[in-house]
Design a protein that fits this description.
It is a single chain. With about 170 residues, this protein is of the alpha/beta class. The chain has one domain: Rossmann fold, CATH 3.40.50.2020. Helix 1 packs across helix 2. It starts with 7 loop residues before the first strand and ends in a 6-residue tail after the last strand.
């Protein structure tokens, strides 16, 4: 691999389950939330799986995107774009867990957190199945666990997931 080629990590289904189990144990220790919110597209798969692990029946989705395409190091919008903020519904008084497949800059998770709070959530926690530490470090002075409630695994490069592959 040439020095300028990006590192690409491939997460398998067993790895996904291991990360979700790790997150699920930590969430349970902090109290099982009322609602799981998955960030579309990539965050819905781990959100639904985590909801099953935790025994949570209420799962909502929010279409909040920043990456413009699926290829490695794809261009991003300056800020996350939300398609339908009303899809969260009324979260008044609810304990909400937001789930995404990956956190890079953390801006998508932050935008979702703000939307969930505006929808009335009493408590908001965040879970990223993985973190791209290279992108994270460009935007943050603190490590991911200081800003994300739960992290499955930290990688130093681009991550692909089993639901993205044919």
């Amino acid at each position: 691999m040439a020095a300028d080629e990006p590192l690409i990590f491939t997460v398998s289904w067993p790895m996904t389950y291991r990360y979700l189990t790790r997150i699920g144990r930590a969430v349970s220790a902090d109290g099982v939330p009322d609602v799981v919110v998955g960030i579309l597209r990539g965050g819905m798969v781990p959100a639904v799986q985590l909801a099953h692990l935790l025994g949570i029946r209420i799962v909502r989705a929010i279409e909040l995107t920043r990456t413009l395409a699926d290829e490695v190091n794809a261009a991003k919008t300056p800020r996350p774009v939300v398609a339908n903020p009303g899809s969260l519904g009324d979260l008044s008084g609810q304990d909400v867990l937001i789930v995404d497949d990956i956190a890079g800059s953390g801006l998508t998770m932050l935008a979702c957190r703000n939307l969930v709070q505006k929808a009335g959530a009493a408590r908001v926690r965040t879970a990223a199945l993985t973190v791209n530490a290279v992108n994270w470090e460009l935007c943050h002075c603190t490590p991911p666990p200081a800003e994300l409630t739960y992290v499955g695994h930290i990688y130093r490069g681009w991550v692909t997931f089993p639901w993205e592959r044919q």
